[in-house]
Amino acid sequence: MIPLFLDLSASRVLVFGAGSVGIRKARHFTSAARMTIVAEDLSPEVFSFKNASIKQQAIEDMESEDLEKLIDRHDIVIAALSDEKENERLCSLAKAAGKLYNNATGEGNIRIPSVVCGAEYQIAVTTEKSAPAVPAFIRSFLEENLPWLDNMVLLQNTLREELKTTIPDQARRAEILRAVIDDAEIQNACIAGVPSTEICKKYL
Ligand SMILES: C[C@@]1(CC(=O)O)c2cc3[nH]c(cc4nc(cc5[nH]c(cc(n2)[C@H]1CCC(=O)O)[C@@](C)(CC(=O)O)[C@@H]5CCC(=O)O)C(CC(=O)O)=C4CCC(=O)O)c(CCC(=O)O)c3CC(=O)O
Ligand SMILES: NC(=O)C1=CN([C@@H]2O[C@H](COP(=O)(O)OP(=O)(O)OC[C@H]3O[C@@H](n4cnc5c(N)ncnc54)[C@H](O)[C@@H]3O)[C@@H](O)[C@H]2O)C=CC1
């Protein structure tokens, strides 16, 4: 699998299961796409999702024709039931319908990664199934160790525009931008929330 960042604003996501795993998968999509969540037992958080329609239902009580129609109306299918057999059945239906699908207990053609998310950047991490605790660890590690990253992105954005007008040599501009990222004093100014325009004036 390879990473991609997608605009899902016109897409529909169907999540089966509303236990801790289903909720975590749904949280990933919550402000990005419209969602339908289907489960017999619902964690309360399910009602806090924006743009989500909730169906409280046992899958085995649904007519297969209705299930197929439901899947057909969606672009991405997530199977996060505690029932492995049902997850497999849902994923075969999604696969046959040509959908993107993820099975929390098995095979899928997409994976939901751990995401380190700032206002100005996103980093997605996966181990391709082998060790799911590792992406979660990397997320916490980066959140703790790069508190300056968001403001650094803003600073770089301001600075690179300014450098384009003052330094014609691209290699030299790249050198300066890289040195700014490595500079501990500038990293601290970013943590302190000094606006990027001020840091530009003060340090450069
Ligand atoms: C294959 C995959 C299927 C899929 O695509 O969903 C899968 C499968 C399974 N995970 C299990 C357990 C755990 N999962 C986590 C955490 C996360 N798991 C996620 C993804 C994936 N998990 C896919 C692989 C992705 C990859 O490798 O990169 C993350 C990244 C994203 C998300 O799910 O939202 C999210 C981190 C979110 C974050 O915090 O950033 C933790 C850690 C924790 O809880 O702290 C544990 C306990 C430790 C452990 O058991 O390893 C079990 C039960 C095993 C059992 O029964 O013992 C199965 C089922 C099985 O293995 O059969
Ligand atoms: N991908 C991942 O990151 C992880 C996956 N898992 C796997 O994911 C599965 C789900 O884990 P949890 O959310 O913790 O379980 P859970 O028991 O808290 O929630 C299960 C959900 O599935 C629903 N459900 C089960 N059978 C159903 C049916 N026939 N019809 C309708 N709804 C049904 C329940 O109502 C509930 O909403 C587990 O089987 C586990 O093996 C577990 C940990 C992490």
From TrEMBL:
The keyword Ribonucleoprotein does not apply. The keyword NAD applies. One of its GO terms (biological process) is siroheme biosynthetic process. Pathway: Porphyrin-containing compound metabolism; siroheme biosynthesis; sirohydrochlorin from precorrin-2: step 1/1. It holds the Pfam family NAD_binding_7. SUPFAM superfamilies: NAD(P)-binding Rossmann-fold domains, Siroheme synthase middle domains-like. Keywords: NAD, Oxidoreductase, Porphyrin biosynthesis. It catalyses: precorrin-2 + NAD(+) = sirohydrochlorin + NADH + 2 H(+). Its EC number is 1.3.1.76. GO terms for molecular function: ferrochelatase activity; precorrin-2 dehydrogenase activity. InterPro entries: Met8-like, NAD(P)-bd_dom_sf, Sirohaem_synthase_N. PANTHER family: SIROHEME BIOSYNTHESIS PROTEIN MET8 (PTHR35330:SF1). This is precorrin-2 dehydrogenase. It comes from Methanocorpusculum labreanum (strain ATCC 43576 / DSM 4855 / Z).
